[in-house]
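Quick note —
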Amino acid sequence: MSLALINTFATLGTFIVIAATAGAAIVQLRHARSSNQIAAINELEEVRAEPDFVSAEQFVMQDLPVRLQDPPFRHQIAVGDKKRDEIRDLKSKINKVGNHFEIMGILAKAGLVDKRLVLEMWCDVILSVWNKLAPVTAIERRTMGDGLLENFEYLAVLAQDWMAAHPNGAYPTDVRRIGLKDDWLEADKEYAASLAQS
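Predicted structure written out below.
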């Protein structure tokens, strides 16, 4: 065997080793990315389960729309009045919820969590919370500008588009469905009708 042929085989062998190493590195990076996404999704879900967050989200979803009907409350939101304990506490709840979804939007926008995964898990929640916080955000943007909660807004736009593209859910079209029998449909209709007559 000539020296040139040996050199060619050695170069080819080196190339194969480098290509295999690069392939293994790509696989490891994919696994690391998946692990990081799982950790981020778990962290987002854990925050949503914390009692303080649950209380804050409950305020935003149930009480905030009523409070926004009150001009003094809106004024305190607009001017950032933090002198009264009640307003400070309510503003803290609003911020806790808004900032959580702002962080979720940042992670999705940066590609650190998969947008599809975020939307499949929380699309309805994202839109519901955005719609409740939008009036407060509009009031605060009077002085703070459009950058306030812009990543939450981005997430809400993605959620709106997702809902428009998947009006009946995101069930795979190539997988058969299980036909569900609604055993109580007629009985429940009769019961609802009896309530209407009362």
